[in-house]
Design goal:
Length: 110
């Protein structure tokens, strides 16, 4: 059984976004626990897919001592962090524009 999340943010990560990714990791662990209790299947893959290698690196860089507990928890719970390698620079630019449009839309709705 494969359970996972895709994080499509690029370039930088604010504290709320970082917290969301950490929360997603624990959600995957909880899903595994619940499904394991209800079935005989014990083979789970927990995966977080990133589209930006700089953001992925924040969760695996051993030289960075910030969030060492998060990195250790990700490892100890067997959560794989993968990079969607087919994302082009053109795709990233579309994501940047979408992010700007979302911010503008949020200003209008307030």
């Amino acid at each position: 059984v494969i359970v996972g999340e895709i994080y499509s943010g690029i370039d930088m990560l604010n504290p709320a976004q970082k917290k969301k990714i950490i929360t997603d990791c624990f959600k995957l662990v909880y899903i595994e626990k619940c499904l394991t209790e209800k079935s005989l299947n014990k083979n789970f893959e927990k995966i977080i897919v990133f589209v930006d290698d700089k953001i992925k690196a924040l969760f695996i860089d051993e030289k960075d001592k910030n969030n060492s507990w998060v990195k250790n928890a990700i490892k100890s719970f067997g959560i794989e962090l993968l990079l969607a390698e087919t994302i082009t620079e053109e795709d990233k630019e579309k994501l940047r524009k979408t992010k700007i449009n979302q911010k503008e839309g949020m200003k209008i709705s307030k």
